[in-house]
Amino acid sequence: MELLASAFLGDIISRSISFFLDRYYQRQTAGVAESLERLRPLLLRVQAIVEEAERRNITNQAMLRQLDMLTHGMYRGHYMLEAFTCRGHGEVDVMAKDEVRDDSFTLCRFRPAKRLCLSPRTPKEMVSGSKGLNELTKVLCGLEMIVADIEEFVLFLKCYPPICREPCIRYLSSDMGMFGRHTEHERIVSFLLQIDPPGTANLSVLPIVGPARVGKSTLVEHVCYDKRVRNFFSSIAFFTKDDLQGVKADANALQESGIIKYRNGALPGKLLIIMELIGDLEEEIWRRLCSLLGQHGHGSKVIVTSRSERILRLGTTQALKLNVLPQEAYWYFFKMIALRNAGSKDYTELSSIGMEIAAELNASFTYANSVGAFLRANLDAHLWRKVLEGLREFTTKHLLMFGEHPIDLLMKDRPIYLWRMESSSEVLIAHRSYEVRSPGQKVPELKMHDIVYGKARPHGRFECLVWKSHIPPYYSYLMSCGIVKPQRMVVKKRSWLQSI
């Protein structure tokens, strides 16, 4: 009798738990669906305002900061909308199985303690369970608060004159525009067009710092193409550190030492100097440059770009610091490249895989363009999954062995292992990554994606093209690689690949 009562009680408890879990899941699903329905029209409204704002010559810094907040909220909203839509498609389950298989395969060869190095915020984790619903609610409430107070912003926006420029959302569709730096662009233009008071002795200097390939040169180049800037300065000249070391004590010879980007003899002698550095600049060179610029017309200005924060001491105004794009903005950039030609039938499935691929690229502009262009030309879900698996193993291997993302290692001039779609007994190694200005130098015909995806099989040491930019300053990004046999490799922690 006791056994029967115990079994009966256990069955009731089990049914009750299942009932409450089902009710909880249904409520959560209904909550997600309701939030997504509220999010869609909000995003349309915000996107319309952002596009209109990017067509206006906004000079007020507070307005630009508000536009920056609005744009970031739009990117977060689009990210959450697509992440939850993809979750409902069922692709997450497929990806989870792939991830378990990949991780178990990797961990059998590397020490599990180093799993701590892996990035915790994947698209799946951001939308899973109650945490995902909380994140969605937070994004939705944030956008609703912004839109509730947007009337004042729109009213002030109408006071600024329109300029002949397409918003970044438009020109991304043709690979011909800069992404994610509108506020920074306008801040630099505002600095350059600011008229110094008469009698000002100090030279106006704006330092711009940020990690490698975050977009410093691209941003400055776009500023120099701005008509407002070209109508203000008589000359725009670019200098590297080597150019500056050869500058003589002659004001007329100063411009000849660098690259003249623009010249207008009809304007007064105001000169804009762009100094592109990697590290610091010696005090002697800086003093000599300031002395020469003092001989030019009043109002000459200097922009200094570098990876090193030591150049901050040169500035006469607050420095501009460029960081990598947030995950949500980077996904928006990546999908505009990779999913541009995807049809509505395949979009959701490809988008779910694409979000995972973008998460592996470490917010790199170069690899977003390189990988994204390949995916756009091959809109096949099976191929995209193979690319994702290869990238995951490629990333995880370096994180477990060396504690850093392979793209970060390459930016530090450290060699990395590259992955290939097809298995091979040979090992492909990238020794260094660098860029050249495409119009001025010949670039290799061999392309990196042809090697990775099995269309080309080079031997020995070689140079290859990773990606050629179609926007100023028109860099071509190259890689110096080599093919070696496995038995020739000597791999040691912190002193690896030195025998190659």
Automatic annotation (TrEMBL):
<dbReference type="InterPro" id="IPR027417">
    <property type="entry name" value="P-loop_NTPase"/>
</dbReference>
<feature type="domain" description="NB-ARC">
    <location>
        <begin position="185"/>
        <end position="341"/>
    </location>
</feature>
<dbReference type="InterPro" id="IPR002182">
    <property type="entry name" value="NB-ARC"/>
</dbReference>
<protein>
    <recommendedName>
        <fullName>NB-ARC domain-containing protein</fullName>
    </recommendedName>
</protein>
<dbReference type="Pfam" id="PF00931">
    <property type="entry name" value="NB-ARC"/>
</dbReference>
<dbReference type="GO" id="GO:0043531">
    <property type="term" value="F:ADP binding"/>
</dbReference>
